[in-house]
Amino acid sequence: MKLAIGALLGLVSAASAAVPCTIKASGGDDAPALLRALKSCREVWVPKDTTLSIRTALNATGLNNVHLNLAGTIKYYEDLAYWAGHAFPFGE
Predict the structure, then answer these.
(1) Residue 23 domain-assigned?
(2) What is the DSSP string of 35-54?
(3) Mind listing the pLDDT tens digit for each residue in 8-47?
(4) What one-character-per-residue DSSP string does 2-32 give?
(5) Structural domain contains residue 50
(6) Are 26 and 33 in contact (CB under 8 A)?
(7) Which residues constitute the domain of residue 40?
(8) Where is pLDDT greater, at 91 or 79?
């Protein structure tokens, strides 16, 4: 009986991890919320008619097996000086 309960708990845990997260625009910098969702959910939705504003660097290094469903828009802040100073290395 212990084995059956353990298996059931494993299925419940796997099912809750599979629940998609939906991101909504905050009116400010959406980078922290998007990164939190990408780190904690296997599936992240940006709904149609949603525009996320990314105003700070978004380091998604190390993410694995995460699906981003982009029906809306992700718009990066248009300050080239900021982005030039906050770039992440790419490759070696």
Answers:
(1) yes
(2) HHHHHH-SEEEE-TT-EEEE
(3) 344 444 444 567 899 999 999 999 999 999 999 999 999 9
(4) HHHHHHHHHHHHHHHHTSPEE----SS--HH
(5) yes
(6) yes
(7) 19-82
(8) 79
